Each structure stands twice: as structure tokens, then as C-alpha cells.
């Protein structure tokens, strides 16, 4: 036997996950037809059976998607949690509060007719004159 010199861009197990995911996705579509047939024949037993099987396949699809994502992340060299945390920390530092006008602040704080500026966050509500 001779081996092929062509390397696949994905490993066999990742390919297997993709194949099973595709088959489960097709099965979900087929269950819709099977459920319709069972409903039109008024067959509650098969309707319940197909509903349960569809639910299990939906769960399998979710698990397969997560497994595929992990495999692709590993293959591409992504780190799971650490990159996400660093990204979130950077976002917090860069967030700016939107600028607001004095009119908006007065209306939001219920002092639109008083003519006085409402206290800012952290300031005392008692005004010294």
C-alpha cells in the first residue's frame, strides 16, 4: 500500500466531528417531516418518540459544536479563558460615559423646572450657598 503525500488541512477526529455534526443537522430536518407524518396520522406514540429523539439530537448537535470549537481553537492556537479575560479588562478601561447635556440631566433627575443642577454621583444632595 502506498501512502498519499497530501496532508489534510484538518485531522481525522476533527473531520469525524464535522461529519457527525452534519448528519445530526440533517436528522433534525428529517424529524420535522416524521413529526408531521405522525401528527397527520394521529399517532401519538410515534409523535412522542420522534419528539424525544429530535430533542436528543439537538443536545448532541450542541455538544458537537462545542467540541468542534475547542478542537479548532486548539488547532489555531487560541487560549480559552485567558484571552477572554484580558479582552474584557481592556474594554472596561476604554469605556467612556456618554456626554449629556444639562437639559438631559435635569429632565432625568426630575428638576427640569428648578433651574438648579442636580448633584453629581458621589456629591452631597445638600447645597451650600
Describe the structure.
With 129 residues, the chain is mostly helical. The chain has a domain of 80 residues. 64% of the residues lie in helices and 0% in strands. It contains four helices and no strands. About 12% of the residues have low confidence.
How far is the first residue's CA from the last residue's CA?
96 Å
Nearest-angstrom radius of gyration?
29 Å
Largest sheet: none
Coarse shape: elongated
Structural class by sheet pairing and helices: mainly alpha
What percentage of residues falls in helices of 4 or more residues? Answer: 55-70%
Poorly predicted runs: 100-114
Q: What's the helix count?
A: 4
Q: How would you state the average pLDDT, rounded?
A: 75
Strand content: under 5%
Condensed summary:
The chain has 129 residues and is an all-alpha fold. The protein is 64% helix and 0% strand.
Task: State the main characteristics.
single chain, 129 residues, mainly alpha, 4 helices, elongated
List the helices and strands and how they pair.
Elements: H1 12-40, H2 44-76, H3 81-94, H4 102-108
Amino acid at each position: 500500500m502506498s501512502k498519499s503525500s497530501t496532508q489534510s488541512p484538518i485531522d481525522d477526529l476533527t473531520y469525524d466531528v464535522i461529519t457527525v455534526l452534519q448528519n445530526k443537522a440533517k436528522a433534525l430536518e428529517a424529524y420535522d417531516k416524521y413529526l408531521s407524518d405522525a401528527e397527520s396520522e394521529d399517532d401519538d406514540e410515534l409523535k412522542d418518540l420522534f419528539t424525544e429523539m429530535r430533542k436528543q439530537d439537538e443536545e448532541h448537535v450542541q455538544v458537537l459544536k462545542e467540541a468542534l470549537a475547542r478542537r479548532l481553537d486548539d488547532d489555531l492556537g487560541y487560549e480559552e479563558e485567558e484571552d477572554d479575560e484580558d479582552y474584557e479588562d481592556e474594554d472596561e478601561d476604554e469605556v467612556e460615559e456618554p456626554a449629556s447635556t444639562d437639559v438631559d440631566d435635569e429632565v432625568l433627575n426630575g428638576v427640569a423646572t428648578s433651574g438648579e443642577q442636580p448633584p453629581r454621583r458621589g456629591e452631597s444632595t445638600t447645597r451650600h450657598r
